[in-house]
Structures are given as structure tokens and as C-alpha cells.
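for the record, two folds in this file. i put them one after another cuz i was lazy. first one right below, seq on top, C-alpha cells after. the second one comes after a little note so u can tell where it starts
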Amino acid sequence: VYAAMLRRMRRDLKDAAPAYEARVLKAMSVVMIATGQWDAAVSSLRRASAQLAALGYRYEVLECTGRVNSVLQHTGDFRQLLDNVWEDERVARRLEQSTILRWTLLFKMQAWLRTGSGTLDAAEQCLRAIHAIPTHRTRLEEIRLWANEALALAARGEVGGVVQRAQDILDLSRNMSSGRFYLMAPMAVIADAMLFVACTAPAGSPARKLGVDVARRYDDLTRGITIFAPRRLYYMGV
């Protein structure tokens, strides 16, 4: 189905106006990311970004940059990701783009915590800066923020805090349907944090039970999305 969609989009783009073409290229990049076509996704986003910049759509240029950062995170290119986010943060602050700023700070915090290249104090400063951004957060954005908080709490050894965040996310995700690609990244973060603390918790403890519940929820949500199969099987112990 994805392949057919991409073929149709490419055919229709031959007669598209520049702004429409750029937005379709952005849409195509989501499909490419979902199917693991990393290089093609970045190429599509670069083309879209150049066209949108020429037309003066600054917010959408930053959206493209954010998706490139998503590719870098998925492929583990944390060095390039960190280089990007410093510049993206500066631009987002200058243009007063609060949503982009939140994404950027979350990317920076993730890279620091995953690589150990930043301190826990710096990561928690990032969290405080995110909380201070005066903008509405969707349910997905709330889950992403809670998951990153849990990762920092796990690194601090604060089991109770991780358990609470995991339960909050589990409760909120109950009303969200499966197949939501962008929900999976924060769900993986909370699963990592929860399983980290569950491994050292006593048998029969709330942390152990919740670790299993979070892994099962990830299993339910990712069935049928090929890119998440390795992580899903890993969580299931296969």
C-alpha cells in the first residue's frame, strides 16, 4: 500500500505547483520514515525544505528539519543530531516557534541521555525549559514529555517516579489507536525506562508488573508496523 501511494504521489507531482509539491514531499517523508527508507526520507525533506524556504514558509522549514532529526535519532547518528539541535534551538528561539523549540529540546535531551554526552543536571534543565514553554500540549506531546522525564528518573534511580510516569502514559495511551507511528518513539522510551527499573525490582512488585504491561502495550500498538518488529520482539523476549 505504501509503495502504491508513493508511486501515485510521484506521478501527480509532475504538474504540481511548488508549494503543493513541497508539502507532498513532506508527506512522502513520513511514509519513507515509517518504512525505514532513511536516505530517501532525508532527500525528500531536503528538497521540501529548500522549496519552502524559497517561498517564505519558515515554520514548515523547521518542521522539515525536525523530521530530519527524527531520522538521525532512529539511525543512531547522535553526533549529527546534537550538531543540528544547537542550531535549530537558536532559530526556534529567534522566530519564537514554541512547538519547534519543544521538539528540539526533547531531541537534545534524548541524545544526551542515550549517549552519556550530557549530564543529568543538563537533561533536567532541558525538561524545566520544556515545561516553561507557554503552549498547549497534545496527548502525544504529553506522552513524549512524560517518557523523557521517566528516562531521567530512571538514570537517577528514582523507581517510584518512573512507575508513576509509566502508569500515566499507559492510562493515556489506552484511548489511542494502534498504528500511530509517532506514538511509538515515546512508548519505546517509557518501555526502556520501565524495564530498566523492573529488572532490579523484586518479583511480584508493582514495577515488575508494570514493566510487563508496558511491553505488552507496545506489542499491541506496533503489530503490523515492520520497522518496529525488532524492538517489539526484543520486548517480548524473542
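(here's the note) second protein begins now
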Amino acid sequence: GSSGLRLEELYRQAGLQVQSLPLNADLVSEFQATGDYPSVVHISGLLAESLSPREVFLSSGENSEPVRAEMLSKLLSRWPPSQLRPFVILEAADNPFDAGRTLLLRNALAARIFAECTRGVLAIGPYPKESLSRTIGALLPVLRSRNAAIGERHVNFWT
């Protein structure tokens, strides 16, 4: 949203069902109430790290509670046994002051989420505002493809 890109609208226009929830909501209760657990979860946010202990977390602003990897793992591991755990798109918000560190933090968080609770993670961003729309536009057809393996989705996206 801070970049002016309305991700929910782009997903809807591509024919995907969208449920947009803030990260600090009780997401499991939301999914249990509808019985509709998504197969793809797109998480977008600012990345930060604590100093003691050193850990990467998502932040939605200065006065918000951090969203730690444990919370995401707990959430994503509670999918019903009859459904595959979700494929996660982890999008790091642009940090023009320290892009290299943001990439390292993003990859550390993605690795932890992947190891603990998902069937795959596509870590994207940070992208400058002007290229984010183009990147999401390239991602949408990949998400809509049926019966594609994660490796195929990765190759199609980068192609």
C-alpha cells in the first residue's frame, strides 16, 4: 500500500480469490470461521531485527507489535491435515537506506518459515516503487497456472 500498488485489486482482476488480513489479526480464527484456508499466502512488510536475541521479524510500523517467525510458523502449521500447507510469497518492503541488509534479513526469515511450516517460499523484494508493479504483473500468471510444481513456478516467474 505504501508504494501505491493495490495488491488485492491486482489479484482479484487476475481471477484469484483474495482475503486480505493484517498480520497482527488472529488469522487462524479467521480461516477457521470460513473453513477456507488459502493455498497461497502473500506476506508483505517491513523487515527489522532485534538485538538480543538476534532475530528477524516483520513490522507494520513503529508502534506495532513485531510479527516473529514463531507466530508465522504457528499460524501456517495449523492448516488442516487434509490440505497442503500454503505456498508463501514473502515480500520485503523497500528500504532505500540499506537494501543489502534487507535482502539478508528477508532470506533469513524466508529460510526459517520454509524449514518450519510451508511447502515453499518465494522471497521477493525489496523492489523500488517503479518496478514493483511490473514484478507483480509477472507473478500473477505464474500463480494462476494449474498443476505447476514450485520449481516450474520459479522458472516461469524469472523467465
